[in-house]
Amino acid sequence: MVRSVFHRRPVVIANWKMYLGAAESVRAAHAIRRLTARLAGRDAEIVLCPCFPVLAEVRGALVGSRLQLGAQELHHEPSGPYTGDVSANQLRGLIRYVVVGHSERRRFHGETDEMVARKVQQALRAGFSPIICVGETTEEREEEKTIAKVRRQVEIVVRELSRLSLSRCLFAYEPVWAISAGPGMEGPQPDPAEAAHLMRLVRKVAADRIGSSAAERVRVLYGGSVTAKTVRPFVSEPGVDGVLVGGASTKPAEFAAIVREVVAACRS
Ligand code: 13P
After folding, report:
1. pLDDT in tens, 23-74
2. 15, 108, 226: which to mutate for ligand 1, most atoms within 8 A of CB?
3. Does 5 map to a domain?
4. 15: domain range?
């Protein structure tokens, strides 16, 4: 019997960051397609987020499969003099999901909560499902500011959203200190119960905006050094809908093993 906590189909997202080249991305997409063929779309929503230059090619590799394509980022304006940036309009017809507010964008590109909120609006207007990343830094954790930080990050995004728009959003709780420095380099991990507590807070902030039954439709994921060995306790917690995977998602066999673990947790 399917556990009630997984009435939302689990979601497993590969964020390939700036790791894979063009040929490697296409090869990885084909391999993941083959390795997850029996589970994709039916038992889990699987989303691949390659770098911008290979989106079209990876899209080609996924045609006829149930895997979905996502981008890692978009600009908060629809168009304009922003050299090197990519707008929602330019991504139309290519993707279904887009990561916004990743801590690496906030840290290395100075993205603010307000910019993230505008990116979410752009994504929704273009018909995409934004994957909104939130999470505290090491210092904020040490200063016991985690709850206030995560609450604020979510509040700024949700305050402008309607019930319909918010139900199309996904949130990923990614404690910044738990994110790995690269494939095969796991960082420290939070206690799964503690992480789940933060994920319930995310849903609670959404519920304060759109009501608790509508907020049940919002999917909330965990991210940070997830591997096939470590993922199970996170997705076994009530209210956790899946994972956002960085380094480990660049290895097709490992990523497929993560998908199997998530689906197994969903069925147990
Ligand atoms: P890692 O899985 O490499 O820690 O990355 C997590 C992440 O940032 C996904 O967006």
Report:
1. 999 999 999 999 999 999 999 999 999 999 999 999 999 999 999 999 999 9
2. 15
3. no
4. 11-267
Answer whether residue 101 is part of any domain: yes
Q: Which atom of ligand 1 is nearest to the CA of 104?
A: 8
- Counting the structural domains of the chain, the total is 1
Residue 25 CA to ligand 1 center (angstroms) comes to 17
How many residues would you count in the chain? 268
Q: Is residue 2 part of a domain?
A: no
Q: Which atom of ligand 1 is nearest to the CA of 226?
A: 2
- Does 188 fall in a domain? yes
Q: Which residues are catalytic?
A: 102, 174
Which of 137, 173, 180 should be mutated for ligand 1, with most atoms under 8 A from CB? 180
Mutual angle of helices 146-158 and 192-210, in 10-degree steps:
30
Is ligand 1 within 6 A of the CB of residue 246? yes
Measure Cα distances from 98 to 123, 209, 238 in Å: 7, 22, 25
How does residue 267 score in pLDDT terms, banded at 50, 70 and 90?
confident
Report the 10 Å Cβ neighbour count for 261: 22
CATH number at residue 132: 3.20.20.70
| Pocket lining: 180 vs ligand 1, CB cutoff 6 Å | yes
Ligand 1 in contact with 10 (CB < 6 A)? no
SS3 100: strand
Burial of residue 48 (number of CB atoms within 10 Å: 0-12, 13-18, 19+): buried
Q: Give the tens place of pLDDT for each residue, 187-234.
A: 899 999 999 999 999 999 999 999 999 999 999 999 999 999 999 999
